[in-house]
Design a protein that fits this description.
- The complex is a heterodimer of chains A (388) and B (658).
- Chain A has 388 residues and is mostly helical.
- Chain A folds into two domains: 1-68 and 239-381, no CATH class; 76-197.
- Chain A contains 17 helices and three strands.
- Chain A has a three-stranded antiparallel β-sheet with strand order 1-2-3, covered by helices on one side.
- The two termini of chain A are 22 Å apart.
- By secondary structure, chain B is of the alpha+beta class.
- Helix content of chain B is 37%, strand content 19%.
- In chain B, helix 15 packs across helix 17 (406-416).
- Chain B starts with 18 loop residues before the first helix and ends with a helix.
- The chains are: A mainly alpha (388), B alpha+beta (658).
- At the A-B interface, helix 3, helix 8, helix 11, helix 13 and helix 15 of A face helix 1, helix 2, helix 3, strand 1 and helix 5 of B.
């Protein structure tokens, strides 16, 4: 497809700058978080820093290349994309690599693909396509919501049995928030919300009964998987209390100005668990202090708001929903992760997009950014090509 | 591609603050417009949460910053697991067979090692290790969580221990000494098949554990074979925990014991160490392969359970090498096999008691039925030989048992039929699992017409019944089953469950789990039949023409039976003298007995692989067991067996007392 000059003029440099800034901070932080015994011992090729940098470069390349295509194609290809997403989740459930009692990865040799990460974006595309096609004047009723419910529950269920409660939760949150954006009739919203809350409470109260009920029918390893889901603290010998305490100590000890880059004792002495993945921000907080943290958080917020700005300016319903969904996907992960690291949210395995180490999450987020750029670029109808 | 949007109005009056926003809102596409307004609300939501995050940052870093900085500097809490001593294994009299001793491992807490390179360089000469070897340990542990200690060297000596203990807080930050109990085998390989050994838990075993059984971590030792494996849950105990506080340089500031480890439970076996030792030594001395079982007939408790050659435990600790494993596998004497329950052999003439019983019970013969033995038996167009080629002459049942006349039992077997034989064999415990706590127990085979049709898809030939009647043919049994059969003959049909565990004692709570005798089956047997078989068996040992006269012990009546199990068809060894027959073609030798014959207490079965003759190969070991068991009730010259058998540890103890 031809790249029009008018399109190029609307390339959103500001978004790209913000993303670049955040990625840069992420890399800097990852380097600090992984300068350790492990990094020295492992060959350079396997260093997380280099791996992440390569993925980042790939992400930016995607951002540029994908501009040649109209985001409308996503709506067209949605059934295929959605199908592939579900297929990958099924494969990972059956034949995936196991880590910590959960199956999450498909080993592709070069990278370990984590389909549940990619599924977040696929879900956004799926729901945006559905709601864009189906316009109603006064909000959706219960019948209209059956298909979206299926769209989210199939992948969320597959992720849940891995088991990965955190990602399944994110998928549900994305779906609910996108549905609310699309508009729901009040007469539908209230009963559905009530029933959901009651159902949640009932399940929560009966977790233990369910366990013993399931226990009599399942194989030991299956029981173990369910138990790691219900009692994640058992999968972690040090306990979450330790993680969360060390994370708080790290951030708090940063003070106003921080302990200085590569100087954080919490991180460098490896008190901090998961310091290059879920708890990456704690390293930043310790080394850069309040000033650096506010800068970081500010930049992140600006990035998200800029994304929403793009959503508002999209040329059509699909564009709005798509851009909104992507911002939502990034925002809810970022907010949950930051609150978790600062002990305001229970520990669930949710990464900080663009910052946490992990190829699948990074590439998914960069794909999202690429779509945002694309929506922005095609936000207005083009003037008819000038004819000479 | 791009649709033309209609109705874009521009407010050209006052210049608005955000011209683009006004423009967007003024596009009159109602539904899209509504979406946009909701999006704006979502933006407010994002701002709210980020404000909360910034407030929390302020709270943690500015308001509580000093407190956390203090904590970061001084308070580093570590949880370390303390290994629990594994339960001991003792014999029936409380003699320790397997115990523990503390061993000291040098471990590194990676989180505390600030400068690992210098540390390793300084540590290597102290541990007498290459620097690269220590780095290898690091690399092996690269995938384990950071807070898990890395074992750099196991089981260091006292000098090294003393040096590291006194220097670790000045020279070796991050180095700790970990105490780990290790297994001590007081009698070397004694009962090695039965007790088994430990090994490092593998990924599979770890995965199989349910989540609440997380007492194991990678690197832990678990039972891999024998009782160590079967009774893992009783033996392993519960780990303790210690809290350590280190400063930011990795030096230990204080220790706080949170939970003491619970030792595992002690297992008392029914076996008797001195007798077991004597048997294993005898078999090792004569380089015999085979097994010996002694069982209390009234309780089913085993006193001796020996399988030779022994399993070389020292090869297995710390993981056996491929070469050693292959050598054990290829050894024609099968040291890997616990032959008591895993060895299956034709029962040979020990089976004749079954044939006799079946004959009596089905009325085919009475105790007075006589048969004339010319040294062979003609059936159909084939001739079946008696082992005594010159023939036994006219024999009754008692003599047939005593002299093991094949012709007699060919006839009985042929009249009774194979299915009836199988029925009695099963009743007496042959061809079935005994349920003893030993691994991979084999059932053996007791053939019947239905069995052959099912497994071989062939009809039963009556000639085959003759082979079965004298314990050859398709018949295979384990030595434990023959011992069980003998014990059941001794008790007139009360079949007990064989056991090797006497009790399990939890030292911590003082709770004792007992294992009372279990009757598996009471077989209704006519005591007249039992009596005639008993007399025949007594003649085997005490009679003038018995096949095991050498076993006889003055002052003790023994009822026994020899057996010779053919391994190769006669053609292979035709014309060879016994000592010229290759080892693998030699006959297996059985001897089984109970005593005292008039009021039985103990049944003894000895099986020597390729031992040729029951009486001469297996007999002496059975005799020694009986002598040892009855030593206090026998005349002095017969009861001295245990003192002559080598027993260094007891002799040493005696010397020390002197």
């Amino acid at each position: 497809m031809r790249m029009d000059k008018n399109l190029l003029a609307r390339f959103d440099v500001m978004l790209l700058v913000l993303v670049g800034l955040i990625c840069g901070m992420g890399l800097l932080n990852l380097f600090s978080g992984s300068v350790s015994l492990n990094a020295i011992m492992q060959n350079q090729g396997q260093s997380p820093f280099i791996k992440q940098a390569v993925f980042m470069a790939a992400g930016f390349a995607i951002c540029f290349v994908s501009q040649f295509f109209d985001y409308q194609l996503l709506q067209k290809w949605n059934p295929l994309i959605y199908g592939v997403g579900v297929l990958l989740l099924v494969i990972v459930d059956i034949a995936g690599d196991t880590a910590g009692g959960a199956q999450r990865w498909i080993d592709l040799g070069i990278i370990k693909l984590q389909p549940s990460e990619i599924e977040k974006l696929i879900l956004v595309i799926g729901l945006a396509s559905y709601y864009a096609r189906r316009e109603v004047a006064d909000g959706y009723g219960i019948k209209d919501l059956i298909i979206p419910a299926l769209i989210v529950l199939v992948p969320a269920g597959l992720v849940f049995v891995q088991p990965d409660l955190g990602t399944a939760g994110i998928l549900v949150i994305i779906a609910v928030a996108m549905t609310l954006l699309a508009g729901v009739r009040l007469s539908t919203l209230i009963p559905v919300a009530l029933i959901s809350v009651i159902l949640l409470v009932v399940v929560w109260e009966n977790v233990n009964n369910m366990e013993s009920l399931l226990g009599s029918h399942l194989k030991p390893y299956q029981i173990r998987r369910i138990q790691t889901l219900l009692h994640p603290e058992l999968a972690d010998p040090m306990g979450q209390g330790y993680q969360i305490l060390q994370s708080q100590i790290a951030i708090g000890s940063g003070g106003l100005t921080g302990s200085g880059y590569l100087e954080g004792t919490q991180a460098q002495l490896r008190f901090l668990p998961e310091r290059h993945t879920d708890f990456a921000f704690a390293v930043w907080g310790e080394e850069w202090g309040f000033i650096g943290s506010v800068f970081f958080v500010g930049a992140y917020m600006l990035f998200l708001l800029w994304g929403l700005w793009i959503a508002m300016r999209a040329r059509d319903r699909f564009g709005v929903l798509l851009a909104y969904g992507i911002v939502l996907m990034i925002a809810c992960q970022a907010i949950i992760n930051l609150l978790m690291v600062m002990a305001l949210f229970p520990v669930v395995g949710v990464p900080l997009p663009l910052i946490s180490y992990g190829g699948s999450s990074l590439l998914t987020t960069m794909f999202g950014v690429a779509i945002l750029l694309n929506v922005r670029m095609r936000c207005e109808p083009l003037p008819a090509p000038a004819r000479s | 591609m791009i649709k033309k949007k209609s109705g874009i109005k521009k407010n050209s009056g006052i210049k608005p603050l955000f011209p683009e926003l006004t423009e967007i809102i003024e596009r009159d596409e109602e539904t899209v417009d509504r979406l946009r307004r909701r999006t704006l609300k979502f933006g407010l939501g994002i701002i709210f949460f980020f404000a909360l995050i910034i407030y929390r940052l302020y709270n943690l870093q500015i308001e509580q910053g000093r407190k956390f900085a203090q904590k970061a500097f001084s308070n580093r809490i570590r949880l370390q697991k303390l290994a629990a001593p594994r339960g001991r294994i003792l014999d029936r009299n409380g003699k320790e067979i397997v115990t523990n001793r503390p061993s000291f491992n040098v471990v590194l807490m990676r989180e505390d090692a600030i400068d690992p390179e210098t540390l390793v360089k300084n540590l290597a000469p102290v541990l007498h290790e290459e620097v690269s070897a220590i780095w290898d340990r690091f690399r092996e542990a690269a995938n384990t969580p950071q807070h898990m200690p890395v074992v750099l060297k196991k089981d260091i000596d006292w000098q090294t221990l003393a040096y590291i203990e006194s220097h670790k807080n000045t020279d070796f930050p991050g180095i700790e000494i970990q105490v780990q109990p290790v297994r001590v085998y007081a009698y070397g390989n004694l009962m090695s098949h039965l007790i088994g050994y430990l090994g490092i838990i593998n990924k599979n075993e770890l995965e199989q554990l349910p989540a609440n059984e997380r007492r194991f971590a990678s690197g832990d030792l678990v039972g891999k074979r024998g009782l160590e494996k079967l009774r893992e849950n009783d033996l392993h105990g519960k780990k303790g925990e210690v809290q350590t506080v280190v400063d930011s340089h990795g030096f230990v500031q204080e220790r706080d014991k949170k939970e003491e480890p619970f030792p595992g439970k002690d297992i008392y076996l029914t076996l008797d160490v001195p007798m077991q030792r004597m048997v294993e030594d005898m078999m090792a001395r004569d380089d015999l392969a085979g097994s010996a079982v002694a069982m209390e007939v009234n309780t089913g408790r085993l006193i001796v359970s020996a399988s030779a050659p022994e399993l070389p435990l020292d090869q297995f600790t710390g993981g056996i090498s491929k070469v050693n494993w292959q050598a054990l596998q290829d050894n024609p004497r099968h040291p890997q096999m616990n032959k008591v329950v895993q060895g299956v052999y034709p029962p040979g003439s020990t089976y004749k008691m079954i044939t006799a019983l079946a004959g009596l019970a089905s009325g085919v013969i009475t105790k007075d039925t006589t048969v004339s033995c010319p040294g062979y038996y003609k059936f159909g167009n084939r001739t079946y030989r008696c082992w005594k080629h010159s023939g036994h002459g006219t024999v009754d049942l008692r003599r047939a048992v005593a002299e093991s006349c094949d012709t007699y039992f060919y006839l009985v077997g042929q009249k009774v039929g194979v299915d009836r034989l199988a029925e009695f064999a099963h009743k007496m415990g042959l061809g079935a699992l005994s349920g003893i706590e030993m691994e991979n127990e084999k059932t053996g085979t007791i053939p019947s017409k239905a069995w052959k049709l099912q497994t071989k898809k062939e009809k039963w030939h009556d000639g085959e019944t003759l082979s079965v009647a004298i314990g050859q043919g398709f018949n295979t049994v384990t030595p434990l089953q023959i011992c069980l059969m003998t014990a059941t003959l001794a008790t007139n049909g009360v079949r007990m469950k064989p056991m090797i565990i006497d009790k399990i004692v939890d030292i911590h709570s003082g709770r004792v789990q007992n294992f009372p005798p279990e009757v598996v089956e009471r077989i209704p047997l006519n005591s007249d039949y039992m009596e005639i078989i008993r007399q025949g068996m007594m003649d085997v040992v005490q009679g003038p023409r018995g096949t095991a006269r050498k076993v006889a012990i003055k002052g003790l009546n023994i009822a026994g039976k020899t057996g010779t199990a053919q391994v190769a068809s006669l053609n292979r060894i035709k014309g060879l003298r016994e000592e010229d027959i290759p080892y693998k073609y030699r006959d297996h030798a059985w001897f089984t007995c109970y005593a005292p014959a008039e009021k039985p207490e103990i049944a003894v079965t000895v099986m020597i692989e390729h031992g040729l003759h029951g009486g001469s190969a297996a007999g002496p070991i059975a005799r020694a067991i009986l002598q040892a068991y009855f030593k206090d009730r026998l005349p002095p010259e017969e009861g001295r067996i245990l003192e002559t058998a080598a027993m260094p540890s007891e002799l040493e103890a005696a010397e020390q007392q002197l």
